Amino acid sequence: xxxxxxxxxxxxxxxxxxxxxxxxxxxxxxxxxxxxxxxxxxxxxxxxxxxxxxxxxxxxxxxxxxxxxxxxxxxxxxxxxxxxxxxxxxxxxxxxxxxxxxxxxxxxxxxx
Length: 112
Description:
Elements: E1 19-22, H1 27-35, E2 39-43, E3 60-62, H2 67-79, H3 81-98, H4 101-111
Parallel strand pairs: 1-2, 2-3
């Protein structure tokens, strides 16, 4: 993981990044990053799709508008490669299992 060269990126470079930082509404970008096996760091706020990120398990959250909190989480990610790999695997497994076409169709059918 640490051989990747970029810290922050937009969609085309996610798979080359160590960390994807999403300071606002996460939407699909977070799930795509998880599928590309890149750790997500998001602001600690509620919004669409944020339930997929469990702090310290499937990614990290930082205190919104707090640069010190964000920097601390970046350092934690970059300085703990074994733990980071575990989080990458957890996030990938969660997205593959719970956020795929079949599970979306099943949820939609239950609503009907």
